[in-house]
Amino acid sequence: MNLNAPEKILNNSAPRSPDYSQKDKPYHESVLLEEALRWLAVRPGGVYVDGTVGLAGHAQAILEASGPDGFLVGFEWNESSYELALKRLRPFGDRFVLVRENFAQIKEVLEGLGKVPVDGILLDLGLSSFLLEGSGRGFSFLRDEPLDMRMDQRLPRTAKDLVNQLSRLQLEELIRAYGEERFAGRIARAICEARRKAPIKTTRELAEIIWQAVPASYRRGRLHPATRTFQALRLAVNRELENLKRFLEQAPEVLKPGGRLVIISFHSLEDRLVKQAFRHDQRLEPLTKKPILPSPEEVSRNPRARSAKLRAAQKTVEEV
Ligand SMILES: C[S@@+](CC[C@H](N)C(=O)[O-])C[C@H]1O[C@@H](n2cnc3c(N)ncnc32)[C@H](O)[C@@H]1O
């Protein structure tokens, strides 16, 4: 499960979830696993793409369901997750290839591998529990870590760069647009005041600046006041919405007629992009009128699934 979901906590207390940071216990529970397989209509011998392999929960299930001769192309741009996934999928031998690439390059990569067209593509967006809690990259304001937030270390700018280098107006705009944060102005101002004294380097420093910047009533709210700003920085550092847009433009071109596109998203900005593309792209036919949500049992077992939304579409059978 994904950690795009804003964390529901009331204060700056220590994390309540188990500590998955130990290197020997990388952890992530796949969200909407059965539903994803069902909407992908996985069949033996099919060729599938998992654009966000993570720790390979969905990828493994796709390989099992498409056996004995189905094939999977997996994208995972985070180096540690890539290595862990490779290890987990090794028993499937030559039935898969894993690339350390951005899913926004899906067309070029699949063409390079000679795998176009495919039967189905899955995206399970955002962070894994492993990245959130075990990567040391500063994704969570509940931990004291360097402000990095790059899922892929080859990306050019860290959260620390943005926080210390953007103008006040740019910061305000970023926090408002990507975080949908109503106190974006106050937070941007407080960041600029703080960084005049010394550069802001850690998640704890930033969370404290935000905490002090917002009205007291906001601190008593359902979400920690830093939730939305952290989300905004993460989206910007990883260019998550741009990647999703680029992916949505290309995905219909690499699907077979009738091929399935299944996307699990975790916040409204992503879901809106998916919904619009499925509704307006003539090459796609939406299959889910309303998004598929996790069952109450799944949410109680795995609280991070609570904001997941799955949408599915298929490539139109007649070319337009
Ligand atoms: C929610 S996790 C996927 C979990 C996976 N479905 C599982 O069951 O283990 C999302 C993963 O996608 C990766 N990711 C996010 N954006 C990506 C992109 N643009 N290209 C490639 N990988 C990406 C992240 O590094 C993360 O490991």
UniProtKB/TrEMBL annotation:
Compartmental location: Cytoplasm
Drop me one GO molecular function for this one: rRNA (cytosine-N4-)-methyltransferase activity
- Any idea of its EC number? 2.1.1.199
Provide the Gene Ontology terms for cellular component.
cytoplasm
Region (Disordered) location:
1-23, 289-320
Which InterPro entries would you find in this protein's record? RsmH (IPR002903), SAM-dep_MeTrfase_MraW_recog (IPR023397), SAM-dependent_MTases_sf (IPR029063)
Provide an example Pfam family for this protein: Methyltransf_5
Q: Which domain of life is it from?
A: Bacteria
The Gene Ontology biological process terms listed for this entry are: rRNA base methylation
Which coarse location class applies to the principal site listed for this UniProt protein? cytoplasm
Q: Which reaction does it catalyse?
A: cytidine(1402) in 16S rRNA + S-adenosyl-L-methionine = N(4)-methylcytidine(1402) in 16S rRNA + S-adenosyl-L-homocysteine + H(+)
Q: What does this protein do?
A: Specifically methylates the N4 position of cytidine in position 1402 (C1402) of 16S rRNA.
Family, as annotated: Belongs to the methyltransferase superfamily. RsmH family.
This one is known as: Ribosomal RNA small subunit methyltransferase H
Upper classification of the organism: Bacteria, Pseudomonadati, Thermodesulfobacteriota, Thermodesulfobacteria, Thermodesulfobacteriales
